[in-house]
Design goal:
By secondary structure, this protein is of the alpha/beta class. It has one domain (9-191, 220-243): Rossmann fold (3-Layer(aba) Sandwich), CATH 3.40.50. The chain is 46% helix and 15% strand. Strands 3-2-1-4-5-6-7 form a 7-stranded parallel beta sheet, with helices on both faces.
């Protein structure tokens, strides 16, 4: 909540996914009005999603968006502004994988991933940043990945895009800091999401063996980091990359 006790309005892209769902719940529990934005889905999936997220404080709704399409993002921003008046918090969480070694990767594997994982940040942030700066408050949290820091075999496209996420963060943080808008990155390690759990068990065991805390992350671990950076009193933190990886990768 802010000083006037009015709830903040938050958009979470990729909101219906494993990490997105946990982030939406975290922001709901903080008392915010949360818009889970994701690719169009049927009414049954929307209903199951909203029924699963319970909170005595915040309110949840679902909106369709394709973050690879600039017009779709502008239209989402307009709809949310018309319905809720403003957007205070943006979590850029939408992402895809299109794995393959560079020698075997085709143009579409590269470009489709970039359109979502990197262009999507621009497409969503651009129609919202002016309003945040004009109101003197905003929180943008961009979801990167440990693989953007370490690189990973078969993920030149993904690793490049996720490294680019933090470059975007640092530049926009400098542009907006004096306007009361913070921009930060959260870089998750390996979490128990559907995508990771689909990896063969033997491979997962090898991954866990390399994590000092001895387990996969819980999506809630990432959500708590996002909630921390999205809070009103986190105004002195901007341009940072907060790793949430159980010690899998440590840097100075």
């Amino acid at each position: 909540m802010n000083a006037s006790n009015a709830p903040r309005v938050a958009i979470v892209t990729g909101g219906l996914g494993g990490l997105g769902r946990a982030i939406c719940q975290q922001l709901l529990d903080a008392g915010h009005q949360v818009v889970a934005a994701d690719l169009p889905c049927d009414e049954e999936r929307r209903r199951r999603f909203t029924d699963a997220l319970e909170s005595e404080r915040g309110e949840i709704s679902v909106e369709a968006v394709d973050v690879s399409d600039a017009a779709s993002c502008r239209q989402l921003a307009q709809r949310v502004h018309q319905r809720l008046g403003r957007v205070d918090i943006l979590v850029n969480g939408a992402g895809i994988t299109r794995d393959g070694t560079l020698r075997k990767m085709d143009d579409e594997q590269w470009s489709s991933l970039m359109r979502v994982n990197l262009d999507g940040l621009y497409h969503m942030s651009r129609p919202l940043i002016d309003g945040m700066c004009e109101r003197g408050f905003g929180r943008i949290v961009n979801i990167s990945s440990v693989n953007g820091q370490t690189g990973r075999f078969g993920q030149t496209n993904y690793s490049a895009a996720k490294a680019g996420v933090h470059g975007f963060t640092m530049a926009l943080a400098r542009e907006s800091a004096r306007k009361g808008v913070t921009v930060n990155t959260v870089s998750p390690g390996y979490c128990a999401t559907d995508m990771v759990m689909a990896v063969p068990e033997k491979v997962r065991e090898q991954i866990v063996a390399q994590i000092p805390v001895g387990r996969l992350g819980d999506p809630k671990d990432v959500a708590r980091a996002v909630g921390f950076l999205a809070a009103d009193d986190a105004g002195y933190l901007t341009g940072i990359n907060l790793p949430v990886n159980g010690g899998y990768f440590m840097s100075f």
